[in-house]
Amino acid sequence: MNSTFFGCIVGRVANRIRGGRFDLDGKQYTLARNVGENHLHGGLKGFDKFVWAAKLFRKGDTAGIRFQHTSRDGDEGYPGTLKATAEYALNENNELSFEYWATSDKPTPVNLTNHAYWNLAGAGSGTIEAHEARFNCPFYLPVDKDLMPTGEILKTAGNPFDFSSYKAIGHDIGAVPGGYDHCLVVGKRGGDLDLIGTVRDPSSGRTMEVHTTMPGVQLYTGNFLDGSFFPRHGGFCLETQWFPDSVNIGHFPSSILRPGSMYHHRTVHRFS
Q1: How many structural domains is the chain composed of?
Q2: Does any domain span residue 244?
Q3: 129 catalytic, yes or no?
Q4: What is the pTM of this model?
Q5: Most CB contacts within 10 A, which of 112, 177, 187, 243?
Q6: Residue 115: active-site member
Q7: Annotated catalytic residue within 87, 239, 265, 269
Q8: Which of 39, 41, 69, 115 is catalytic?
């Protein structure tokens, strides 16, 4: 089993759901519990465990691959048959984009993301603690000992989650038990694709911007990498998404997709 989710599409719901359960339209649904008593990244057989149908495409200066998967009603406990499409594309402007669409015949939570790990210095170069990050994320979601959000939305200013100006990822990582594995709340600027952050590696000079349509991004610093292939903190993830456990926390943005509506999510990485 791939417990690190290297480069995977994760779903039907990325991130954590407390107790592996939620209520929707007066009915309680019980999900697979695959991390203690909680549900993580779609369960025991989430979207990362399936072989998706794939087809290459070209549009002008863009080349990519389109993936499709149908998740049946009841898979891992989720209601509704969900038809999902994901497109990965590269263009001549050094942009890598991830785009997702989904429809369902019953109301169901949907939260798709890509779980790519990044090390801008290159594989085998050590940890990402010297990488410098700046995020347009004025708030973050604190978590409990099980990494479940508490429901609070706190300011990042003046604490280890403050990346309002460039700061080495490792500068304050020791003050965060286990390392960063928290959802940062995107500061919207009114555009379709909002610049949520920039990460640069001083040693190589490589820089990556991340733009997204989603309200949150999970900053994860490879805390559970065990050294078998990559060292702890050997890569970082920026998983753009709805907030974790939003199905159980009413004041979080809703992740519920209803029949007749379309789930759509786009994230673009720009390299220089």
Answers
A1: 1
A2: yes
A3: no
A4: 0.96
A5: 112
A6: yes
A7: 239
A8: 115
| Residue-by-residue pLDDT tens, the chain, 272 positions | 457 999 999 999 999 999 999 999 999 999 999 999 999 999 999 999 999 999 999 999 999 999 999 999 999 999 999 999 999 999 999 999 999 999 999 999 999 999 999 999 998 899 999 999 999 999 999 999 999 999 999 999 999 999 999 999 999 999 999 999 999 999 976 668 999 999 999 999 999 999 999 999 999 999 999 878 899 999 999 999 999 999 999 999 999 999 999 999 999 999 99
Please give the residue range of the domain that contains residue 32.
9-271
Q: Which CA distances in Å does 123 have to 120, 205, 234, 235?
A: 8, 15, 8, 9
Amino acid symbol at 14: A
Question: Could you tell me the CATH number of the domain that includes residue 76?
Answer: 2.70.98.10
**3-state SS class at 111:** strand
**Residue 4 domain flag:** no
Residue 272, CA distances (Å) to 56, 61, 83, 124 in order: 26, 18, 35, 21
* Close Cβ partners of 242 (under 8 Å, ≥ 6 residues apart): 111, 214, 215, 216, 252, 253, 254, 255
From residue 213, give the alpha-carbon distance in Å to each of 169, 189, 195, 246, 265.
Answer: 24, 11, 9, 17, 6
3 domain residue, yes or no: no
Q: Counting Cβ atoms within 10 Å, is residue 246 exposed (0-12), middle (13-18) or buried (19+)?
A: buried
Residue 46, exposed/middle/buried by CB under 10 A (0-12, 13-18, 19+)? buried
